[in-house]
Amino acid sequence: MLLIRCPYCEAERPEVEFTYGGQAHIARPQNPSATTDDEWRDFLYIRANPRGIHYERWRHMHGCGRFFNAVRDTVTDKFVMTYKAGLPRPDQAELEAARS
Amino acid sequence: MSTFRIPGKGRVDSTKPVQFLFNGKTYAGFEGDTVASALLASGVHLVGRSFKYHRPRGILSAGSEEPNALLGIDHGPGRVEPNTRATVIEISPGLKTISQNHWPSLERDVGAINDVLYMLFSAGFYYKTFMWPKSFWNKVYEPIIRGTAGLGKSPIVPDPDIYASRFAHCDVLVVGAGPAGLAAALDAGRSGAKVLLVDEQAELGGSLLSETDAGVDGMTGWAWLKASVDELAGMSNVTLLPRTTAIGYYHQNFVGLCQRITDHLASAPEGTPRERMWKVRAKQVVLAQGAIEKPLVFDGNDRPGVMLAGSARSYLNRYGVKVGDSPVVVTSHDSAWLAAFDLARAGVKVAAIIDIRPAVPEHLTTSASALGIEVLLGWTVTGTKGRLRISSLRAKPIDGGVAQAREFACDALLMSGGWNPSLHLFSHTQGKLEWREDAQVFLPAKHIEQSRCAGAGNGNFGLAKVLAEGAEAGVAAATDAGFSGTVSAYTVSDELDMTGVSSRELPTDKNPSTAKAFVDFQNDVTAKDIRLAVREGFKSIEHIKRYTTTGMATDQGKTSNINGLAIAADAVQRQAPAVGLTTFRPPYTPTTFGAFAGYSRGGLFDVTRKTAIDAWAQERGAVFEPVALWRRAWYFPKPGEDMHAAVARECKATRDSLGIFDASTLGKIEIVGPDAAEFLNRMYTNPWSKLQPGRCRYGVLLGEDGFIRDDGVIGRLTTDRFHVTTTTGGAARVLNMMEDYLQTEFPDLKVWLTSTTEQWSVIAINGPNARNLLAPLIEGIDLSEEAFPHMSVATGRICGVPTRLFRMSFTGERGYEVNVPARYGRAIWEKLIAEGQAYGITPYGTETMHVLRAEKGYIIVGQDTDGTLTPDDAGLGWAIGKAKADFVGKRSLARPDMLKADRKQLVGLLTADPKVVLEEGAQIVLDPNQSVPMKMVGHVTSSYWSVSLGRSIALAVIEGGNARMGETVHIPMPDGTLRAEVTGTVFVDPENTRLSA
After folding, report:
1. ipTM beyond 0.85?
2. pTM for the full model?
């Protein structure tokens, strides 16, 4: 069972307190009606399936209830870092720092 | 009977005899014996029949790696467990054990015919033999093969034992309480770190328990062991867990431990759990799992009486049992010589030591000669004889040489192919292994977790090295966990340095096609099978494993994997590291389902949510059904009534006068804030801005994909406060979805969401007399038609307690939903029942609720919809706020596929025969005469007997259904095809006059 750091509670908690929320950084279009059918399809259904670094959404369901984002390595399953919803995708330097 | 017990030897307590049963016969042992040691003490080696060939099998080892000696154990009714290893089961008074996989008896087993027909059962036989005629596989061959192959029988009655589970945290978890683990735990414990020391055996000590030569710090090994265990037991920061197996090593130092608590006891206090699963999060882990001895691979190496030399030494030194009167040793490693020496010193005549090496350290041959043991160097065993126990062996020079083959009469053959570090837990973490060519072993290299390996499990053999490395690992682990300590130094005396070589299968002088040199004893895989698999094109070790099944039995190849790998590597002509090991998977040893289930069984398996009114329904004999995690009253049968009669009565009473229904399970979410209406505008299809306080609206919630997710009535209490209801099963899902959008897409909105499902008891009052019942009981709300019309909400008091009163209907009758704080639920319910007697008030359950709503065409999300229906498909297009620029799912409703005319649409069905009630889920076709497979155009979603109409009614989804009104469709059933007419979905009171009647 993984330990996950909730960026709002600022504490590591066991995985059972959390629920997975799909891929992160997929913003709902500001004006959906203005999207083409293909753009809307991509927003709805097209998701990444990387080997390695993956940006994901998690919710501290049985804790503070907040949604947050996480970087996880799909090879080792391990969390590299977590950060608050709305913050930008961490850059390479931040990932390296989190890993060391 | 214990003719093989040597008085004065071993650690068993000879003052405490214990009797147990094996195959119905009573055997005697002592406290401290395993079933295996007690049977061996009585001269019993034959304990089972092999998986495939039904060959007689004996006890191979003295530990949890045992592949052969699998017994069923019986501690009484329901306490039956198959496939337990005789080498780890402690004897207890009255324990019953039975051998497995034979008929009619262990000694005379008809299945042994397979041993003669071995050519039919080679590697991958199920792909090659028994192929003709084709139809025979399913009906004849497979049932027979499955019947004869296999292990013990599953228990057939529920397990009466209880199983516990707990979490634990520690600074240092030490796995294995042999010398390395003890040294690690001692130094870590002395540093003040919180230490857990676990060992799968009944007694802590590991290899020291079988070691009688070496001494530590001027004491005998056993004296040092006692002093060490006593010191550890005296430390308040150290927890000792014998009989506890570390079964799996998971992410971030999460380790599963299975502790066996009662099996070894004659009786345990009532309520004691049989086993306990520990879920440990350790800051640091020290793996001191030791090593497992490898068998040698030669023809007939599976005969009862052939066993691992180190295990024979354990039986002698730890249990005081000699495994035979005339043993022979065959080995490629020095350690087996010690078994011969110890046996000889105990008075056993060891016929010979056969070592496949041409030369061995001189001290061995010197000792052998002093003990009068014949030594054959550069020789090997080429075959064994004896039906149910080895009686003789044939030996020859390993290089084929000129020397004559020799026969040795023997009753035991002790073999050793060297020792292999136990890498299991390390490998669970995906730690990287490194091949050591000199020792022919894989060793732990790069650690992924916060862990260390020490001792034989790290490739360091010999007590001095093991103690030193254990102490170092203990201090290092404690230091990394934030403590500081010093590494203890140990002085070891009288220890011999052990060396050895590794071998593949040994040569035979028998016809190679009939030789059977076993690699995997439990799955009956021979060296020949592995070579055959390679010849047939399997090169990957993972494929070879699955094709031959080597290493796939319940022992997971503990004694066979490395031999299998060596032979496979030789056959594919590659080095062992290039071939690689197969994956190690938890659990380390077979673990009971009970231990995994823990407390989660029976009534504790899952939550049963009950409403405040549930107990009333139970007292009235209601029949319940599960709805999501809730249990709900399904119907209230009167004496003599079946479900049909009860539901018909409940329906009629509600439509004629007055029904009362516990609707408390409906999900309820309080949405509050200045932007509450805007939030609802964005979430639900309907418009909310203009809904006046005091009014309600039926809301439809879509996913972003445009499909219906949930529905429910939403009441506006004030401009900034809404009372949202959801489906019973959807409550948590809907709140999660709302939170998701609020937190991540609309964080600018000032809205708060609160689950209030369990805060309110909801009592639905339906029927023409609903207002007549309520009016005298309500204060502060004008119930007149003008002041409180259909789809209204108001706050007031009922019978003196606060209420949120809704005027709404899920039956088509005049309806009210009385929300009261849950603590008043039952009292108000009972008051309403009492006051309602004047109107024949009738409690009804979920079945009647379903019938009444279906008569009105009100859908149930999840029954009439299945995640592929849009509002239009479900006939709810009217609930879409056309003027709204956006809401969740709106864009998807304009996707091309959503606009197709042949989408499945919700319609009504009336069967041609009004007495026939269609089956829910039944498939619908347009042309009953088409050939099979027919084109299915939809299915029945709801179907009931309507007492109001005196006929059956149904709802269905049908492709292009809206355009098929009046058409006849067909429902093929096993006993004939039914006809039905497509209709609208409203069967009763389409004008809705009854809502205000």
Report:
1. yes
2. 0.90
